[in-house]
Every structure is written in structure tokens, then in C-alpha cells.
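Researcher: Next sequence.
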Amino acid sequence: MTRKDFLSNVSVLGAAALLSPAAFASVSTPQQPFTPLNRKIRVGLIGCGSVSGVYLPHLATCQYAEVVSLCDIKPERAEKAAKKISGATAYPHIDKMLAGVPFDLLINTTNMQEHGRLNKIAIAAGKNVWCEKPLATTYQDGVEILAMAKNKGVQIWGAPAVVNSPQFAFMAKQVNEGNLGKIAAAHGHYGHEGPNWSAFFYEKNGGSLPDLGVYNIATLTGLFGPAKSVVAMVNVITPSRKVNDKGTIPVVAEDNAQVLFDHGSGVLSHIQCGFNYFDPYGHQGTGQERPTISVYGSKGNMHMVGYDWKPSGVDMATHDNPSTKRFVEDPGTYVWQEGASVICEYLSTGKKPLINVEHSLHVLEIIEAANESQRTGKRIPLKSSFPWPIVS
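Model: Next structure:
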């Protein structure tokens, strides 16, 4: 079967052909038809820490969004954020937030260990949810959250938004059209010296995979389709860290990971990530000129320049054009923090986003499988899938 035929079959059969029956039943319950609201989407954001400081300015420029409520367990942070947004109300607890000013979409930018619990509370209250990565602590928890959302008639999406970049679209087009020949292998990497502002990155259910590796996993599965199985090694390089909120703490979650994926049809890919990578471009990625995503095929290769959440071009060479040339240097309007704004546009107008929750769940299952592979020393089969190709 050619790649073109395979893509055609996947687009017809969708997730049903790739999911096990049990997983398909739990994840793919039919969603009720969505009717756009045809107005600004009222937004409530919970978690007024560092990530919200990037989300909120972007939402302020979004014609489809109106931030009406802000919440944080440290009330002063919500109050400080609310002072910068006309008409926004601050709340110290999610229960008070849900009982307060009505809103349509909850944006969850809390500590990753809290994502699943808070998403369930919001969905039970009938709210749509955009969640920073990861969607939940475990894959099974994520499946239950999605089933709960469908039963309540609301929707949920999860970061990252890497499939939105024009660089991703260009690379997907080259792969899907067979311009690189038979795809053999791909590699992604992302790392820095580790955050120091909060302990949760290093505590149970934290780690570099759900914080950093999640980007590369979403990109590579987005390009080549769902992974069928995973082999991984993860460990802790730095056994203790000094962080702003708790002082010196033991590192429990992995801070160094290497994960190998089998996508089927012969395609193998690999990612590495960690909190022990010296990189002069660091956490911000500004000025990064090295490729961080590389793809190799029988008739060509291509390399995404810059981190996949902040790309600045794609270098490509093929048999027909062997001199490497840079494409798609303009990111357009794409920025990593745009996910919630894109969802507001969808809820308002009905313009369907490229981001889908099944993809987020698949990434979550991969992260869980990577840790299981380390524990058992085994190759771990995967059962989840998502609608693919994302960009046809």
C-alpha cells in the first residue's frame, strides 16, 4: 500500500479503524452537533501564574473572547490579574468562580497535577474547557473526562497548539504528498536547565515529558500519525532542586527522557527532552537557529528550525532539488499561546480547529507508556488514536 492510499484509507475510516474496540467505545461517543454562539465567548481562567501572563494578553487581542473571571488559590494573584482586565472578577476558589459571573469556556493554566480534577469540576458545571498540557494525570482519567464532556454536551481541548503553525502545515504537506519519498525516521528534541519557579515540575506526575516532550510528541504524531507502540528510557539526573515556592526539594519525576515510536508503515521516530540541557536560547527559544525537528525519507529530508512551539522556517533538500533551501520563514499569526483564542473563535463562529482532544489523549497515553516502558523494560503497545492526517 502506498502512503497516499494509506492516508486516503485513514481519512475514510478515521479513528475507528485504529482504535481497539474498547478504546473506541470509551472515547468516540458521538458528539451532539455544535451550534456556534455567534457572540464573544465569555472566558474564565483558573491559575493566574506564569502561563496566564502570556495567555491573557493574547486573549485581550482576540475579537472572539471576553475574559470575565479569574481564579487562583492564591487570591492576590487573581486580584492582580483582574485589575488589568476591565470588568473581570477575581475568585479564590473554583466553586466560587463557577457560582459567580457566568462564562462559556474555562481556561485551565494551573499546576499540571491539578488539571484532571479541575477539568472534571468545570465539565460537571456545564463548561467547555481549554486545558494547558497535559489534559489529565493519566490516560484513563483523560478518557473519562472526554466521556463526561460528551455526556454533558460540552467540549474539551488540550494544549499544545503546535499543529497550527504554518511550518507544521508545510511539513505535513511534504509528507502527505510523498515529496520526501518513503519516510523512514524522524527526531525531535527540546530541553533547558529546568524551571525554578515551582516545585510541581519535579513532583509526582510532573516531569520533562508532560512539560517539554509533549510538544515534540504532538508534532511527530501529527506528521506521521498515531504511534502503535513505544520504547523509552527515563531517569533523574539532578536528584534535588531549589525552587522558589518550596526551597530545596527531592526530584521525584523524570528530568531526562528518550522515547522511540513505531508509527506503522515502517516509520520510526524519536524524541528526547529534559531539564538538564544547557541551551543558550533556554526556556524562551528566541534566536534559536538550529533544527529541533528532523525528518528523513528515501528522496529527501527536512528540518524545522527553532522549537516546534516557536518555529522560524523549514530547511528542505530532495533528489530533485538537492541544495538545501529554507521555506516558510514567516510564522504568520501563530504563537504557542493561541490555543484558547482559537477555541474561542470556534465557539463563536463554528470554524473548526486543527487541534482535537483525541490527539491530546494520544499524547498523554504516550507519556504514560514511556514511564511504563522504563519500569518494565518492555515495548508498550498503544490503544488510542485520533483523526489524522491533521493537515491534508
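Model: The first helix runs from residue 3 to 13. Confidence is low (pLDDT under 50) at residues 1-29.
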